Amino acid sequence: MDLKLLxxxxxxxxxxxxxxxxxxxxxxxxxxxxxxxxxxxxxxxQNEADIVCIQETKATEKDIDFGPFAELxxxxxxxxxxxxxxxxxxxxxxxxxxxxxxxxGHPGFDSEGRHILLDFGTFAVQSLYAPSGTSxxxxxxxxxxxxxxxxxxxxxxxxxxxxxxLCGDYNICNHAIDIHNPKSNAKSSGFLPEERExxxxxxxxxxxxxxxxxxxxxxxxQYTWWSQRFPSIREKNMxxxxxxxxxxxxxxxxxxxxQILPEARHSDHCPMELVIGL
Length: 278
Prior knowledge:
Layout: E1 21-28, H1 32-37, H2 40-47, E2 51-55, H3 67-71, E3 75-79, E4 89-93, E5 99-102, H4 107-110, E6 115-119, E7 124-129, H5 137-160, E8 164-169, H6 193-204, E9 208-210, H7 211-215, H8 232-235, E10 243-248, E11 255-260, E12 272-277
Parallel strand pairs: 1-2, 7-8
Antiparallel strand pairs: 1-12, 2-4, 3-4, 5-6, 6-7, 8-10, 9-10, 11-12
């Protein structure tokens, strides 16, 4: 007897549809080709993440040998900057998405490859890379423009994807506990009062959860980036926590565990890992 399969309506999926867990990783690689030479594939193999959100790929999909990642079961989705060797985001996933959204619809930020989103039906994941303002006033202004744009943009995303993870490098420390020396950096880009206020507003009015602080509200000395000016800075753990996995409130009850992985040294950043229950 021939069986006819009817189209399946994924819009009715809930977290009760599946049982199990999923591991999501976010990692600013500061160049995927350089990170691969430092053992990135081996790290992915040992970590066994299901979804890896990458920032600062500094490459197009054609620039790397994806074979070793494919052997681990990953499928890549890229959104590169128009400028070669600059910025760019990607998501490597072992689960097939239902839809992919390249960019945010903002021509200026899309030209720099700053947003990509994968829709898995039960939830969606975005990899994002916020502009840095450390190179001067012009780029700091661009960063402020991105902040204003992104606040509204993520609210629109949550209307379409109520179960949403926003993974990436935000280039902002929220609180004094998130930076090694808050006093000396009070006027530094990434810890400016306007940036910190924006991050607090993003979490509160934007209805988002800082997943790391959800589990570790008061734990100090937890950083994801260290300056490369002096080798001893990372050894002494003089860092900043600027990489986040933010979750919509629809995801809050499905957060199982989170950790920062400073032993991973393929970049001036380190990865952050979130486990969610499905």
